[in-house]
């Protein structure tokens, strides 16, 4: 059962080792995806049922699968969303009994309360489409008429589009859930009867894809993520997510990955603007990227401070990416605050490195969820069994503070008040070409991944444990931290040369025990000065994102509140304009 599920969610093929040109023909990729969902031996699911119903040879099999899927009802909104997406695409082929069954599910079975932003967008998209396309005498569990549901859904979706393009998303840059936002926009683009909503959905799909392409590297969604679901089956594999499958469909590079949202995207004639494909696949120079996002809504006061903005910073190199947010607790769960990602020699291997504090406390959920702390803790544990485990790979902590400048990052941890899991955990490459742990002289852990070298300097005692055959960094010191330095082989030369340069860097920890202050002179000679929840300077200057920017990089810019996103392409600027409702080439 699990093996089939893994095959479905993440199917890496030998195409990953073929020349990139072999994957460039999108018609070939479309045929490959269609064939997979039509013929592969996978568990029943709505994309596979849709694919088979739309194929005359497999239609009866698809209708039987759809009948089986709708024979039991889940309160999960994503299940309802996919059922409705399937209905929209295959409604001409449905029998009256199957059509009535799907309508009756909407009439008699409510969904569970919505929590995440992606759940709200998925719900209102599905509600809009069901209310638009169901039979005139259809009823809904919420007691509202079709017209009222259409009105409510359209209001929510238009407001979400406006807020996201003017102030930033809350569930931002999520490898797992961004595909849900994107798929919702494609369904509205193709099936909404309101012309204004159709146009805005088309532009929002382009906007979401540009945001993704900006942080994309050979199949991976790089840097910090608001939420990233990592279950044990796909642990630490950055390409095992929905957006990697969307990337393979539209960008054509990276490992071949099949995903559910990808199949529904296949059914649309949507095409990303060529400037977006270029943004994702053409990397000639490194660049710094600043993005302004928002945290999850807090419904009541709790243990974490309220912040208005989340600044996301990424250093994108043609061979690797180092990205972060300043730490803290901005999501109830599944937060991923920083990491290093690189292009691996083996596309099926894990290619990222990060350290985190696995904070797991009932009180941490109070600001975000309506339940009492213990009930919320139990419910989250039912959905994500790994939530309350010391080796979980996602989750934010208010006891973490992160400072990054270009290819250097310092993460500090103050765990003296922490009762549950007062330690930090680090996930190191499973099978690097070389890894040296020099605890006696330099103190650096030096890693050779092939084309990318990584140095990690733990500030306190640590040990390297074995976790299912993978090296796991563990340190129980309460005041703690790491310095991370990354560089490509094209810049550093040999691994030996890299280590020599790394060992010559200057680390001043003299004020760490008293003030949690670190001063570090990088391989490039830049002087970083960082105090936990205090000052952060580079060569004596305070750096940060301009207050009037939503996106700020050499490749992508947007003024806060403008609703316009400019892609700086090789042949000129391309502007996605949510007010003029157009994409235009800059004059």
Largest sheet features: 13 strands, antiparallel
What general form does the structure show?
globular
SS-based class = alpha+beta
Catalogue the unreliable spans: 1-22
Approximately what portion of the residues adopt beta-strand conformation? 15-25%
Describe the structure.
This protein has 587 residues and is of the alpha+beta class. Helices cover 33% and strands 23% of the residues. It has 17 helices and 27 strands. The strands form four sheets. A 13-stranded antiparallel beta sheet has the order 15-16-11-8-7-5-4-3-23-24-25-26-27, with helices on one face. A seven-stranded antiparallel beta sheet has the order 6-9-10-17-14-13-12. A hairpin with a 2-residue loop joins β1 (216-217) and β2 (220-221). α3 packs antiparallel against α4, α3 runs parallel beside α12 and α9 packs antiparallel against α10. 50% of the residues are buried.
Summarize the structure.
This protein has 587 residues and is of the alpha+beta class. The radius of gyration is 24 Å and the shape is globular. The protein starts with a helix and ends with a strand.
């Amino acid at each position: 059962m699990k093996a089939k599920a893994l095959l479905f969610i993440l199917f890496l093929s030998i195409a990953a080792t073929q020349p990139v040109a072999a994957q460039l023909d999108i018609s070939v990729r479309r045929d490959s995806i269609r064939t997979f969902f039509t013929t592969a031996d996978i568990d029943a699911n709505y994309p596979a049922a849709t694919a088979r119903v739309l194929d005359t040879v497999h239609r009866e099999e698809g209708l039987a699968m759809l009948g089986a899927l709708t024979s039991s009802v889940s309160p999960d909104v994503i299940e309802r969303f996919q059922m409705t997406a399937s209905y929209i695409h295959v409604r001409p082929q449905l029998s009256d009994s199957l059509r009535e069954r799907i309508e009756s599910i909407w009439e008699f079975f409510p969904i569970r309360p919505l929590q995440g932003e992606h759940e709200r967008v998925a719900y209102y998209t599905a509600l809009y489409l069901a209310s638009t396309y169901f039979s005139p005498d259809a009823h809904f569990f919420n007691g509202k008429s079709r017209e009222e549901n259409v009105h409510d859904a359209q209001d929510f979706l238009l407001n979400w589009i406006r807020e996201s393009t003017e102030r930033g998303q809350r569930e931002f840059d999520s490898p797992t859930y961004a595909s849900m936002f994107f798929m919702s926009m494609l369904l509205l683009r193709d099936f909404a009867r309101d012309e204004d909503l159709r146009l805005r959905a088309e532009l929002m799909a382009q906007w979401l894809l540009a945001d993704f392409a900006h942080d994309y590297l050979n199949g991976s969604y790089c840097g910090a993520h608001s939420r990233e679901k990592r279950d044990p089956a796909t642990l630490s594999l950055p390409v095992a997510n929905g957006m990697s499958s969307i990337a393979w469909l539209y960008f054509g590079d990276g490992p071949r990955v099949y995903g559910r949202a990808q199949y529904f995207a296949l059914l649309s004639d949507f095409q990303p603007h060529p400037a977006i494909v270029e943004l994702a696949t053409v990397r000639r120079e490194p660049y710094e990227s600043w993005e302004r996002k928002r945290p999850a809504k807090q419904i009541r006061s709790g243990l974490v401070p309220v912040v208005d903005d989340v600044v996301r910073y990424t250093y994108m190199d043609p061979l690797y990416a180092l990205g972060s947010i300043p730490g803290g607790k901005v999501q109830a769960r599944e937060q991923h605050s920083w990491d290093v990602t690189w292009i691996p020699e083996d596309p099926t291997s894990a290619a990222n490195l990060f350290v985190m504090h696995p904070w797991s406390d009932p009180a941490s959920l109070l600001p975000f969820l309506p339940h009492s702390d213990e009930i919320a803790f139990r419910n989250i544990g039912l959905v994500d069994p790994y939530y309350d485990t010391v080796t979980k790979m996602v989750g934010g902590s208010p006891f973490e503070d992160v400072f990054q400048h270009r290819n250097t990052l310092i993460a500090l941890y103050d765990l003296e008040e922490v009762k549950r899991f007062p330690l930090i955990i680090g996930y190191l490459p499973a099978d690097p070409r070389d890894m040296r742990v020099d605890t006696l002289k330099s103190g650096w852990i030096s890693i050779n991944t092939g084309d990318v070298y990584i140095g990690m300097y733990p500030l306190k005692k640590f040990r390297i444990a074995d976790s299912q055959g993978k090296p796991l960094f563990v340190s129980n010191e309460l005041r703690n931290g790491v310095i991370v330095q990354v560089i490509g082989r094209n810049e550093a030369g040999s691994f030996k040369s890299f280590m020599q340069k790394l060992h010559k860097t200057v680390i001043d920890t003299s004020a760490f025990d008293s003030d949690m202050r670190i001063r570090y002179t990088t391989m490039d000679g830049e002087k970083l000065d960082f105090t936990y929840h205090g000052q952060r300077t580079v060569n004596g200057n305070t750096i940060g994102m301009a207050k009037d920017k939503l996106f700020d990089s050499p490749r992508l810019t947007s003024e806060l509140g403008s609703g316009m996103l400019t892609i700086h392409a090789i042949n000129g600027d391309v502007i996605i304009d949510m007010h003029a409702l157009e994409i235009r080439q800059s004059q």
